[in-house]
Amino acid sequence: MEIQNEEIIEVEKLLLPEFCHFNEEARRVIKCFENTEILACPGSGKTTILLAKIKLISDRMPLKKGKGICILSHTNVAVDEIKNKLGFNANKILEYPNFVGTIQSFIDRYVVFPYLCGKTKVRIQVTDDKCFAEVFWNECQKGKNRQIKFLIEKGCEIHQQFDSPIDFIKKMYLANGDLYVQGINAKKAGKGTASVKQYNQIIKDLLIDKGVIRYKDAYTYTEEALKEYGEVWNSLLSERFQFVFIDEYQDCSELQRMVIDKLFNNKKTIVQKIGDVDQAIYNNENSKESTWILSDNKISLSGTNRYGQEIADVLIKLRTGNEPILAFRGKRNILPTLIVFNDSTRHQVIDKFIDEIKAYNLHEKFPEGPFKAVGMYKNVTGLKLKNYWENFQDLEASRALTFEGYIINIIQELRKGNIYKIEKIIRKLLCQVCYYMNIVSNDGEGPAFTVSSIKKEIDDHEELDYRSKILEIVHLDNYKYETIYRYLIDMVNSILDIDQIEMPESFWQESSNDKEPLNQVNIYQGCSGIQVDLDTVYKVKGETHIATLYLETEKNRGSDLKRIMPLLENKKVKKWSELHEKSRKCVYVGWSRPSHLLCVAIQESTYIKYEKVFKDWKVIPLV
Questions:
Q1: How many angstroms separate the CA atoms of 131 and 400, rounded?
Q2: Given CB 3.0 to 4.6 Å as the disulfide criterion, which of 17, 22, 226, 235 pairs with 230?
Q3: What span, in angstroms and rounded, lies between the C-alpha atoms of 541 and 74?
């Protein structure tokens, strides 16, 4: 497929701001239609470049033999961006024979569910760990499962960190046929024991009799399906799709990569993998990483439109192979800034960051910011986010599937203006209510209890303008807890056409009576009115800030900054561990968020040892 420069100029008018153009590096990537990997530095505009490629392909549709394109990402944001940026052209891309969606939804649709439909005649229900544990525990009450029931009850008695059998079951998993529990070092039952046999049989029975599987079980069934039908699917999908684009490829698990390689025949399908190998930090501090090994034929997008060369020069030292970064904006004349603190001045760090924002007049140039403070750890025994600001709250607990948790998450996203996230949270809530109340699909087709499949049910609701209801939430007079509470109740009742939500008592439990402070959770309000959001690095990946404060945090008797200091000195580390690698990537992601000002808060003890590293930085001592 050949692309002319005139065509790219037309795409620029559609996708780029006035007077902006794709550089030669970007044009080379846009014109490339071969099997390749595209390594993109932070701020390189890879999503816009991908959209340009898609637009140029759509202009040539229908493709030969009626083939389509497959666009895979890790979130549904990709679909929204295609709709927003490509306008009426998006219709071509979102229709058969094309596929646009998440990698997991693709695997579920084309691998897992077709495979499982051959094993059970009931509807497949993909549930979270908590819901699955509750159903599993009910099965344990049957006499034939007394050994596994005893193991669970005894485990709760011995290990006090588990509040209930449900909590214990959530953490159970198999490894090489042995039964383990997360948080307990020793295995709980060996391969071939009665407990393990009953554990496996319950999982099998829940699938066959009730169609219930956990999200994580989908991976196991994927491997089984590929072994049995991999060649058939490879042949069929390679005939359907001419191009496959995988965005944020660095975030793919080993299994997802294996599925992509198995399903697509590279001789018949062009596969392009796009991302930044050094931004593979996944969703939280406990996620295990899966390394993307780049091939020799990779193409690099080394230019960035986000930050100045001052920040780019620091980031290069943290990249694999010290891959270069060229800041198209040149130098911004804002040096990376180091705030040195000790135990007695730690609580002054955020205020000093605000002073720096004011010093460069960023609060007046960009009154909406965002200005953010981020760190690697929030729940450790060492230095963590809460140590910088005592009002910082760990909201992970609120992600438990309680009604309070849903409300808290919605309020957080309302404050950030993330409408698409709010909509997904509501769909997740609807899935959970449907599951407990045994509400099934109207047409009786497909899985009814996944965040994706329930969307059709909502869209088909004749008496409800769902999108308008979502926008109503955004335009509420206030984002107070009670307001959102009442709105959600009414919305769920309306969508599901029920008079009352019937859920377990645990679903309605609340942590406290005072909910109003949730409107300002984890927003530090400076005396000058400048607001600074606090969050983990994992939650701001993909974001662009006007100014970012990176906060040093600790784990396993060492800090993230201490671990990466040799890299900043251009030295090699003899004993490079998994924790070193995770620290490198987290620092790299955190330091590459700001467009203007990068500040780093560092302990005096760390700074004294590595003072020479920061000779080109602006250093502010709070000691």
A1: 11
A2: 226
A3: 13
SS3 462: coil
CA-nearest of 344, 340, 356, 354 to 525 is 354
> Which DSSP category does 552 fall into?
P
Strands (E), 158-301: 172-175, 178-181, 212-214, 241-246, 270-275, 299-301
Write out the two tokens for 619. 């250093």
Q: How many CA atoms lie within 13 A of 260 on its CB side?
A: 24
- 549: DSSP letter: E
The residue written with tokens 């694999």 in the block is: 320
Average pLDDT value over all residues in the chain: 86
* Nearest residue to 403 via CA among 428, 421, 435: 428
Phi/psi-derived region of residue 68, left when phi > 0, alpha when psi is between -120 and 50, beta in every other case: beta
Largest distance between two CA atoms of the chain: 74
129-172, pLDDT tens digit by residue?
Answer: 888 898 999 999 999 999 999 999 999 998 888 888 998 999 89
Distance separating alpha carbons of residues 569 and 616, to the nearest angstrom: 12
Cα angle 109-539-347, degrees, rounded to a multiple of 5: 165
Strand runs labelled E in 32-156: 36-40, 68-73, 99-102, 125-127
Where does 159-211 show beta strands of DSSP type E?
172-175, 178-181
pLDDT at 32 (0 to 100) = 93
Q: What are phi and psi of 153, to 5 degrees?
A: -65, -40
pLDDT digits (tens, 9 = 90+) for 528-585: 889 999 999 998 988 999 999 999 999 888 999 999 999 999 888 888 898 999 999 9
Half-sphere exposure of 359 (CA within 13 A, CB side): 16
**C-alpha distances in Å from residue 20, one per residue of 5, 301, 332, 545:** 15, 17, 19, 21
